Amino acid sequence: MSELPILQSAQAILKAAAHTRRLIISSPPGSGKSTKVPQLLLDSGLIKGRIAVLQPRRIAARMLAERVAWERGGTVGAEVGYRVRFEDKTGPKTRIAFETEGILLRELLTDPPLKNYSAILLDEFHERHIHGDMTLAACLALQKSARPDLLVCVMSATLDEKSLATYLAPCETVLAQGREYPVDISYVSEETAKIPVWDAAAKTCAQLMPATKGHALIFMPGVYEINKTAAAIAGTSALAGFSVKPLHGELPPSEQNDAVAPSSGRKIIIATNVAETSLTIDGVTAVIDSGLARIARFDSARGINTLFTEKIAGPSAVQRAGRAGRTQAGVCVRLWTARENPYRPLSLEPEILRLDLSEALLNLKACGIAGFGALDWLDPPFEKAAAHAGQLLRELGATDAQGVLTAEGRVMAKYPLHPRYSRMMVEAKKLDCVYECALVAAASQERNLWQDCAGANENIKIKSDLAAVIRGLEFCAASNFEPYACRQAGLKPGVAAMVWRSARRISGGANPGEPKALERVSQCFLRAFPDCVAALLPGESGRYQLLGGRRAMLSAKSAATGAAVICAGETLESMHRSGADITLSFAAEIREEWLRAAFPDRIKTIAKPALDKNTLTPVTEMLTLYQDVIIRKDITSAAHGKPSADLIAGEFISGRHKLRYWDEEVEEWLARVEFLAKACPDFGIEPLNEEDIKLVIADICGGAKSIAAAKEKAVLPVLQEWFDWEKNRLIEQHAPTRLVMPGGRKAKIRYPRGREPYLEAKIQDLFSVTDTPRIAAGRVPLLIHILAPSMRPVQVTKDLKSFWAESYPKLKPQLSRRYPKHKWL
Known about the structure:
- It is built from 28 helices and 31 strands.
- It is an alpha/beta fold and 825 residues long.
- It is elongated.
- 36% of the residues lie in helices and 21% in strands.
- It has five domains: 5-175, P-loop containing nucleotide triphosphate hydrolases (Rossmann fold); 183-353, 3-Layer(aba) Sandwich (Rossmann fold), CATH 3.40.50.300; 529-635, no CATH class; 664-734, no CATH class; 738-818, no CATH class.
- The model has no long low-confidence stretch (mean pLDDT 89).
- α1 crosses α2.
């Protein structure tokens, strides 16, 4: 015990604790603060009541309690114990309780002055979990009122002591020393940094382990990457003699213990950031750091949780590297390049600035605290996020319009759950399905409950993940969570057993309801997630319309697949190579009558004109909407009239369909009108603009019963009716389509848009034409395309007189030889 560095600062810690009620202890990783500081305080006699040591994670709380109990020659649950969500291993004689941060907050509900506690130690505070920030703020407020004797101690290896000391003032700071075992930090090459992180880890591990002693600790962001890394190591011959141990929060306690237990053989531990702090793994001399972690964020604008894999901040990288130097000199290889290192984030925002605040706000109100503004925060939450939390509590009925806690809100606050699931439990009591809803609520608290294989979904007759998880857990419990049976149900044995125990506590031992209870669970679920209703988009398999116009995919593994309307408990945005995507999961089919019963003011029916996709005839769509999501569509024949005609016209205006007789003749007529309007503005003829064309198409489609009927309607007469008789006469006279030649033949006049009009005529037809023909009241000479007998142009001119006098004599010999049968002047 004397070998741990923190004990070198024991007197300084005890002196500070005797002098002040606020204390900061900063010491390097591996110094022993998590296990030794609470024992120092207890054995000094300074602390008369219970000491709470708050931990960010359940695995750390449990393992630290077991370690300290062992050091003191006892067992967990006696002098030393732990409390985590749904699990209490403490007793009347417990003096040191390792607890997750949210546990103490819940105690404030039943014991506002915390009379059972004399000291609150917030360990690994640098992680800045929201419950840690709340507990600290609440304890500081308590010190100023009912508990000036309460000792509050903040501990970490990577703290910003100055800013924290300013916040806690008056306080004392103890900078404890740690072991100075050097850790050689290096970075990988550009080539290694580009390959998948699990392959880079296996490659690096193969280079390190034969040249070092001790164990290796590899940090990966999640269970998926841990499994990929383990597979990559298994395929590396140089690492064949090493034992590979995964370590993450979803493993059963026995497997977690096995990963950190002393071992004579060398092992490679692959862990998430649960191994970054608190946990001591003896014998680790090499750390391989992926530099990645799963970071949870909440998008208050869209009301969804996001979970992206992000680069870790500087303090986390320091913590991870420190794992290699606890007992001797070590090495740390970072799986990113030295060139990249300066550009990595310096810090991670506190959770209070990036997570949903509704549960925190409900807890505050239940403790008699009006809201976030009533406490002094190290980092106050953003106003927008706080407002969103308040809005959700109002929507769930936990508070009234003024933000005051309602009777239902007080009941909700008693559950150690997110307010949504607390609301579900309140509804469950009304509908007699407490047992079933408790299973759903407990399952929602645990990630990675489901295995990758097909499971209980196959035997569930209703489209509901909630029903699937209930039946799956019951199947597992019937076999006492035997692994094979759990695999049949598609659930992980250890996690399933934990969920089952949690559900029994939540339900208070309630018995199963009648057969229809599974459906009533979905009704309770709807009350908890009224803003997460989604409707299947027609013709799009698995894609749903959410409130606010957003779209999302339902997980392919969901038992609710194919349901027309669902309510989703998980709305997760993930980043892919093609961009961000929203995935819905933990969903249940919802009936329209449930929506009408629960939220009658949010249901409305509107009539909307539409076209039948098959017959292309106008119909009336009767749309039933839940807010802005269409949950039902009924189609009836539409009465003939302007709305129907406008629908048909819209198809032609948009270009999706074409009028058969909107042809070259029509386009030529429009071009003639444009030409004459420009050439003779005094005629008062205005060309048709885009809006005029839309009106003309609407006139053409008037009275049509279908797209097919409108397509066959005449176009040019309707266009000509746009002008009166006199203007049509002017158009025909001064922008003619033909010019009568001296021999009686008619030559075509063309009006290309944006260019001058021109006439095409054979040279023989022009023999007696000496002056250039003119149109537009004689104001515009025609451009003449003079054609050979083969109809190929031989000259283009606007001056026929010059052509006959100058060009024709030169062309005639050549033309007469080429076309000897034709007459030449």
